[in-house]
Amino acid sequence: NAGVTQTPKFQVLKTGQSMTLQCAQDMNHEYMSWYRQDPGMGLRLIHYSVGAGITDQGEVPNGYNVSRSTTEDFPLRLLSAAPSQTSVYFCASSYWSRGETQYFGPGTRLLVL
Amino acid sequence: GQQLNQSPQSMFIQEGEDVSMNCTSSSIFNTWLWYKQDPGEGPVLLIALYKAGELTSNGRLTAQFGITRKDSFLNISASIPSDVGIYFCAGQLEVQETSGSRLTFGEGTQLTVNP
Q: How confident is the model at residue B96 (pLDDT cuts 50, 70, 90)?
């Protein structure tokens, strides 16, 4: 199993550009989520999905879109990048039973100029 | 929404020392989790706690689920250089069909171990 994979590892964008961060998992997990990590702020939930076709907003959803057309993939779209979106983005997946550990991908480091 | 206060924010210790960090919340959680993040990597689960008062060990790591369900601590005994990293606590309220296994994370404790 590859676990949770994320691409790209690094990305530099100009303000106003759009892009999609890819996330895939091969563990047949129902639950997938996107977090952003900023210094001193821990991980904040952007969007999550409890299954294919079902998504919902997390704590900091503005400026991001998601879709879940398959169990395996959960892409995160930045519609019009802003410098405030400079961050490290992590995708995670799990079965959605109580306490089930979330497996994290290696992260995407995004710089918006 | 729920907030977790994790302390200390950073620690600088000598190899062999014991370490303690904790998380407190204004809300009750049903599950507490402790993760470690190595530089350039995603967080990895260290310990999961499922019952108030539960004390669980994983090698040199020991964690407890506070009796009020609003706090948890993590202890690391006899620290070694590879313990360096950021440690996060996370709380899970309850699993619902609409929200899945949603977690709330603390701000993290940056641990530095001097050989």
A: low
